[in-house]
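Lab notebook, bench 4. We co-purified these components, and the gel suggests they stay together. Before we commit to crystallization screens, I want a quick structural picture of the whole thing.
Request: model the full complex, all chains together.
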Amino acid sequence: MDNQAIARVLAEIGDLLEIKGENPFKIRAYRTAAETVASAAVALAALPAAGLQKLPGIGKDLAGKIREIVETGDAQYHRDLVAEFPPTILDLLHLQGVGPKTVQLLYLSLNIRTIEDLEQATRAGRLRELRGMGARKEALILKALEERRQYAGRHLLADAHETALAIVGWLREHEPGAEYIPVGSLRRGCETCGDVDVLAVGGTAALMDVFTSFGGVERPLGRGDTKSSMRLGGGFQADLRLVASESRGAAMQYFTGSKPHNIALRDRAIQRGYTLNEYGLYRVSDNERVAGEREEDVYEALGLQFVPPELRENRGEIERAIEHALPRLVELADLRGDIHAHTDATDGRDSLERMAAGAAAAGLSYLAITDHSKALAMANGLDEARVLDQARTVRECSRHLDHLTLLAGIECDIRMDGTLDLATDCLAQLDLVVASIHSGVNLDQAQMTKRILRAIESPVVDIIGHLTGRLLLQREGYRLDLERIFDAAAACGVALEINSQVDRLDLNDVRAKLAHDRGVKLVVSSDSHSHAGFGVLRWGTLVARRAWLEPADVLNTLPVEQFVRSLRRNRR
DNA sequence: GCCGTTTTCGGCCCGACTGTTTTCAGTCG
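Here is the predicted assembly.
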């Protein structure tokens, strides 16, 4: 049983307790524990109860429940709750405007158990019989049901970024007096975003009208003088908050989140005699504001090093900030090379020369050409003769370039049995080999792990590409024993890729951190298929930052000679 | 249910907006 599965049971207990109307702090304890478990660096199934209790927010009781879940696949407490409330009512909880109290009311008074029940009851006008329910609420629920059908909920980071840019552009054009700052999960660099949050600083309430007249708005969800929410076409929700200049920093902190980070921060504020909200940090004794204009000041006043937005997930960053020992996170400008790109020799759109020009324009000083190997016939993958021919061309082309070095590589398929798609003596003649899986994705965990381990053990493999094969919002990754794979990669000197394609971002933040913690080096690569495709490196860099990586942890921050020397094939 | 540089008990983050209400509960972030 993996951490995610354990976390799901704990989170579901939290949801069911909320519907039951239990003590909110007990509910929070389960939710905090679920988040801690989901982002834990090691497989908790292997830990005894005593070890579990060392994790923050997990005490004797929860440690026991986690052990029970690991050993029996479920917890009796969970089963009891499910017997009391059908688990399908949890779907209702995810509807916009429907919370735990409403779900409980719907279930106990109308016996509504499913989305379908709710839709029927609403259309039949039965909701109006209930206290606190009127025609407007009824219409809101119907709307929420329709939107649920239409949209899955979350969106890729890059799409959220585009939407935020469009909103900010619109606001700047029509109400230039204020400053506009995208915040929320977008600012933290989360791989998917549920909504787009924008902070307006120093404007007037009039800008709310500008916001609601934004072209992409489908319907308003709420509109006030300091806060408005809109549903946009394509399923995005956008929130705008307005604060005065003196609260700029506190508001940035507050609306960037995450929720667990903010709760921990406000906890610390209370302990130190302050209260923290979106307007500032206030001393309780005399209500004096001690910080608020600058975000850095809020952290400093709480005795903390400034925490970069990407780390604000309550995954140990506060403890490290107390010691002023946060990592110096890698930045996009630290990347000197890209080591995964395709040309029109296989499924890329552009020629070698155009790809080189694109990489140079993106400010890179080296680029590895890594087209597909022959197993990907659909992509016109290269066989041994073609890849060696291409390598000659790449090296020749590189000699004629002033500010860019081209490396001759391949993205070689890992076959079902873990052997490589091209002959070893061919692969040995290249500058580097990225090995990836593109087919046979449904093997069980033991087979898939063995397959990857075999590839890692091959002396001609330098890097494993998009290791887990997950596709965001589409497909879970392969079933893998990641800890074994990370340990093998570390032992063999094989680097793991953070693939920057917006729907991959693979490895993700938590796994890249775990890999690093176990001694693995990483690369951030674009997997670009066109000369304009190197911009995605910004997304991969965000993942690396969320994984706590410093420049020294990412091989392609090195100058080209050192990078080449650091490859597994060139190490002794 | 967790936790402790006042505490092993009594705390536990904070505020805006909506709808259905006549003073507030519910939802959201």
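The radius of gyration of chain A is 26 Å. Worth comparing against the SEC data before the next meeting. The longest strand of chain A covers residues 405-413.
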